[in-house]
Amino acid sequence: MDIERALKELRRRRPLVHNITNFVVMNTTANVLLAIGASPVMAHAIEELEEMINIADSVVINIGTLDESWVESMIHAVKIANEYEKPVILDPVGAGATRYRTSTALKLIEIGDIYILRGNYSEIKSLIGEKGRTRGVDSISSGEDAKDVAVKASEMFNTTAVVTGKVDYVSNGKKCYAIENGTPMLAWVTGTGCMLTSIMGAFSAVASPLDAAIASLLTFEIAAEKAEEEAPYPGSFHMKLYDWLYRIDEELIRKRKKVREIEP
């Protein structure tokens, strides 16, 4: 699929994205999905998972606020989504910060097929068994080998891996892309990585894992660039980000995209 045209197809289809996500970002991720043209649902009760996943177009699992009951729901959700052949997008928030988070993310990867694995440098590096530096759920490592981390994760977990940072890297093991859009202002608003992961859930309903990951990064980060141009402070930037996710179109993506294919 033409990456720019994926947005048009998303808006035509209006996919239902089932999110099992964290308390911090439920409202913001729902709003970005609505802004971009998708339909969000936030549901984590085991009793309704099968019915909800059956009608959803994709499933986003975000481990930001864990407890035993939520982990159980996430495990069931991955299994059911695989049974119904619905794409699963996993955001291993804070992996590497605690053993509980790391082991939970690895268990979710182990029990089922993951369509896209999206995390920051430290999170993904910790999942492949290498030490990344984290503070809470934020990466404090420079990520000079981020491309290699993305490639290794894709090969190790048989998935499309996305490592986000100053430069984002996307790899399915055979191909690798670098995306250089975005703005440092995204780090001044909580949950922007989680928003991006939910958008990947929407694009995953209409595109291959590689195309969905790249289309999500370009759409979200170009919208962020435009938002910062109009609102260079965190509060107003946050609101403008919603506006630009609603306003962004194929022409703007084509004009401003900074993506290049590189050797894996």
Please give a structural write-up:
The chain has 264 residues and is of the alpha/beta class. The chain has a single domain (3-262), classed as UDP-N-acetylmuramoyl-L-alanine:D-glutamate ligase. The chain is built from 11 helices and 11 strands. It has helices at residues 3-13, 26-36, 46-55, 68-83, 99-111, 121-127, 146-157, 192-204, 209-230, 234-247, 250-256, and strands at residues 16-20, 39-42, 58-62, 88-91, 116-120, 134-135, 138-139, 160-164, 168-171, 176-179, 259-262. It has a 9-stranded mixed beta sheet with strand order 2-1-3-4-5-8-9-10-11, sandwiched between helices. A two-stranded antiparallel ribbon has the order 6-7. The model is unreliable at 135-140 (pLDDT under 50).
Total of helices:
11
Question: How large a portion of the residues is in β-strands, by DSSP E?
Answer: 15-25%
Total of domains: 1
CATH topology group: UDP-N-acetylmuramoyl-L-alanine:D-glutamate ligase
Please give the radius of gyration in angstroms.
Answer: 17 Å
Question: What is the 3D shape?
Answer: globular
Largest sheet: 9 strands, mixed
Q: How do the helices and strands follow one another from N- to C-terminus? A: HEHEHEHEHEHEEHEEEHHHHE
Protein structure class: alpha/beta
Q: Can you identify the CATH class?
A: Alpha Beta
Oligomerization state of this entry? single chain
| Overall mean confidence score, pLDDT | 94
- CATH architecture descriptor text: 3-Layer(aba) Sandwich
The total of beta strands comes to 11
CATH superfamily: Ribokinase
Helicity level, as a percent range? 40-55%
